[in-house]
Design a protein that fits this description.
This protein is mainly alpha-helical and 58 residues long. The protein has helices at residues 14-25, 32-35, 40-57.
């Protein structure tokens, strides 16, 4: 098999990976995309309900 430029032995396109890495570098940590979808009030309410159930079971 002839060696192709910008390809690893397993066939990964090195240039494409570098572009993806550069694009994702500006987005911060992975958790930021989920923050906008989280309803904080609902989570707190569910936590409170879980705590009260925990108290009832002991």
């Amino acid at each position: 098999m002839a060696k192709q430029p910008n390809k690893t032995q397993s066939g990964t396109n090195v240039q494409e990976v570098r572009q993806q890495n550069a694009a994702s570098a500006g987005q911060g940590q992975f958790g930021t995309e989920f923050a906008s979808e989280t309803n904080v009030q609902q989570v707190r309410q569910q936590n409170a309900q879980a705590e009260s159930r925990k108290g009832q079971n002991s």
